Amino acid sequence: MPGIHGAVKKATSRNLGAAVHRHRPFSRRGLQERVFTLAFRQLVYPQIWEDPLVDMEALRLGPGDRVVAIASGGCNVLSYLAAGPAEVIAVDLNGAHIALLNLKLRGLAALPDHAAFFDFFGRADRRENVAVYETQLRPGLDDATRAYWDGRGLDGRRRIEAFARGFYRHGLLGRFIGAGHAVARLYGTRFDALLAAGSLAEQRAIFERDIAPLFDKRLVRWLARRPSALFGLGIPPAQFRALASDGAVTEVLKRRVERLACDFPVADNYFAWQAFGRAYARAETPSLPPYLQTRHFETVRENAFRVRPHHGAFTERLKAEPDASLDAYVLLDAQDWMNDATLTELWREIRRTARPGARAIFRTAADERLLPGRVPDDVLADFQYEEERARTLGARDRSSIYGAFHLWVRR
What we know:
Layout: H1 2-20, H2 28-40, H3 52-59, E1 66-70, H4 75-80, E2 87-92, H5 95-110, H6 114-123, H7 128-137, H8 143-150, H9 171-186, H10 200-211, H11 218-224, H12 237-244, H13 249-262, H14 270-277, H15 294-303, E3 307-311, H16 314-318, E4 326-330, H17 340-353, E5 354-364, H18 377-380, E6 383-385, H19 387-395, E7 404-410
Parallel strand pairs: 1-2, 1-4, 2-3, 4-5
Antiparallel strand pairs: 5-7, 6-7
């Protein structure tokens, strides 16, 4: 088992290095890139931070569609199953994310009902979850996934124990959010007060009174100027520079936290619950990812066999697909990491594998088109950029942390 997990970690490092490293190892930017790569070898996203409702509307998923998506925490990959696509190929450079997706797929197969599934993956804080893993989940896992969850983290505990101690407080993102709460408490602010608000007006008042002033604090401004401070958001140095291009990083972060806190009712926004409460709402409300909602559970479970997890690079996985064989592409924000040559190679493969009318979606840290001027015109000429629709959908993305949402359609 240790040998299997070691091989997975080496593959993760190799793939991440190819994606992230752009500068000489001993340059300032090169060192930042390698520190990020080291951090990203572990679990980053216990929950994905892209709104699946926006994704599914943009992609118009339906029966017969073949989807290839970056897996991340697996939440959206499973949520897409509610639309009944024929296949979802879930690709990720990070082996920990693939292990999390595989654990969720095993949970759908082995746990008796929605209540048991939600206790494990929704609440994710019950001591009994470790025994559930041992008796119901572990026996059916593949060797690499079992080795990951049986393995121990830097704290010496088995990784599976995170599901007994509040899983969404773990991973780089969980710890980043926890650090934000700790800094707020230094100044006498508690974020979870926002979750009790009864209206958007009350949410706005709490933000203006308690949260907005934090962004003027010297410590917060000092931290926001350092790329390493935002590694917990999964932001590599290249993406940090794109974020800074939209203005002072502190001001950009403030605007996006304001949108998260004020633009959507907290009762309908599970991203706000994770950011300000570090957990999901316990009641059955829209404040849950679709795959965790009771009404979608049986459909998701019935369609789970259609998910194909793959540990590796997105472009390399596309190279294994026949011409004109795919209908939808979900790239998250991965292109913010890429240089022009890597972007071009990716989009040549998307063009080759896309059926007529295929949809590709992605986010960017900054409000930018990203592709024109970097991907050759002869490649982009085969796609239509749906700018107005993308702007409309992006404004409805409840996660609120990106600069822009993008939708390209194969002509």
